[in-house]
Amino acid sequence: MSAAINIAVVGLGFGEAFVPIYQAHPSVGRIALVDVSTERLARVGEMYGVESRYTSYEDMLADSTWDAVHILAPVSFHANYTLAALRAGKHVACAVPMATDLADIDEIIEAQAASGKQYMMMETSTFAREFRAVQNLLQDGSLGDLTLYKGVHIQNLDGYPPYWLGFPPMQYITHALSPALRLTGTSVKDVVAYGSGRLDEDQTGTSQNPYPTEVGLFRLDGHDLVPEVTMSFFKVARPYIEGFSVYGSKASVEWPPVEKTTPLVYELQDLDPNQADTGLRGRRSTTVELAVDDGTELLPEPLRRFVDTYEVLPANGDAPVWKSAEHGGSHPHLVHEFISAVVEGCVPTVGPVTAAEWTAPGICAHESAMNDGERVVVPQYRGRSGR
Q1: Is the confidence at residue 247, as pLDDT, over 80?
Q2: What InterPro entries does its record include (predicted)?
Q3: Which residues contact 143 (CB under 8 A, 6 or more apart)?
Q4: How far from chain centre, in Å, is Cα 349?
Q5: Segments making up each domain of the chain, as ranges
Q6: Where does residue 52 rank: exposed (0-12), middle (13-18), buried (19+ CB within 10 A)?
Q7: d(C-alpha 250, C-alpha 10), whole Å
Q8: Quick count: other Cβ atoms within 10 Å of Cβ 319?
Q9: In this structure, which CATH number among 3.90.180.10, 3.30.360.10, 3.90.940.10, 3.40.50.300 belongs to the domain 126-294+359-377?
Q10: Superfamily of 5-123+297-349 according to CATH
Q11: pLDDT digits (tens, 9 = 90+) for 269-287
Q12: What is the structure's pLDDT at 284?
């Protein structure tokens, strides 16, 4: 394979956002678009000047032009599309989650090892500017010991495509849980979870899941932190929120209640020796905004503009379009991590084993919720091929 990677972007609803980033990457050659909608293929293809277009995923896989695929199709396709691509000799980047079934996770790990190709789950939260800033605070000792973690993903899916009806919230856990696992470098040992509320009849779909919300406690392997995660897709009245708060013995960071505003840092102050005379008790904390880190120095120069709002000059001559950098500016970092892993032949940060460790706890949490909070042991994946 040449140094220039030819990649197919599969699913242009979410996937459109990645097209200009791949086009700008210095190690990417040609790009193909794959989508069942001919209208969407035409619109995105004309905007970005991409001539290679497929309505059939299988036809694209059969074309030896393409070295890699980035799967951004609906969740139900993730496992089968990943397996088909690996067995066709393609490198795979895949949106979250890796799979919704433990057997599929095992099969993907085995298929990746047999293929010799790279696999990366494109988890946005651990490549976002907010996570990078928190990670820096932990590494320089500012947070102290991690003692409490709360992950949350609340998103009302009324009006979304029908395949989301009744989707078990915990099976989409990676955005809310993975920051805790990356910060601690651990995996989940076991989980206890409960469902909260009941879906209306027209929201249940075919999954047999009755819960609009699921809440879980995750016990880690080798770390005292016990992450608490709340996942909700229906019947909760609040704007979208997807984030995490992490608390330490010296300082803490809380996710803001309103998306796209800055998290707050609380720093514990020394106990005032004269405080008892005032009638007050306990140690006080100062509050400042988190200094976020876009990490542009980690990116090739052509990708740096994609960490913030950027301009697209349509190839068809239409007026310029401004696009927002969603998910904390993570998209160019994800692209660069995946392409670098392919070019250098190294396991990406969220390789198959790490992806399994971040995905399986949610599958097990839903099992726990469906069994009235029964403790469920999570499979362990370390020692298998791929990080």
Answers
A1: yes
A2: Gfo/Idh/MocA-like_OxRdtase_N, Gfo/Idh/MocA_oxidrdct_glycsds, NAD(P)-bd_dom_sf
A3: 134, 137, 246, 248, 249, 250, 251, 252, 253
A4: 12
A5: 5-123+297-349, 126-294+359-377
A6: middle
A7: 44
A8: 6
A9: 3.30.360.10
A10: NAD(P)-binding Rossmann-like Domain (3.40.50.720)
A11: 988 777 665 556 788 899 9
A12: 87
Domains 5-123+297-349 and 126-294+359-377 share a fold: no
pLDDT tens digits for range 199-220: 999 999 999 999 999 999 999 9
Q: What is the pLDDT of residues 5-50, one digit of tens each?
A: 999 999 999 999 999 999 999 999 999 999 999 999 999 999 999 9
What is the C-alpha separation between 240 and 160, in angstroms, rounded? 14
Rounded to 5 degrees, φ, ψ at 376 are -120, 125
Q: Nearest Cα to 120, choosing from 188, 183, 70, 180?
A: 70
Q: Are strands 68-71 and 52-54 parallel, antiparallel or unpaired?
A: unpaired
Structure confidence at residue 319 as a pLDDT band (50, 70, 90): very high
pTM (2 d.p.): 0.95
Cα separation, 154 vs 45, in Å, equals 33
Residue by residue, what is the 3-state secondary structure of 188-226?
EEEEEEEEECCCCHHHCCCCCCCCCEEEEEEEECCCCCC
Arithmetic mean of pLDDT, 171-175: 98
Tell me the average pLDDT across 157-181: 97
Share of the chain above pLDDT 90, in %: 93
Paired residues of 252 in beta bridges: 247, 266
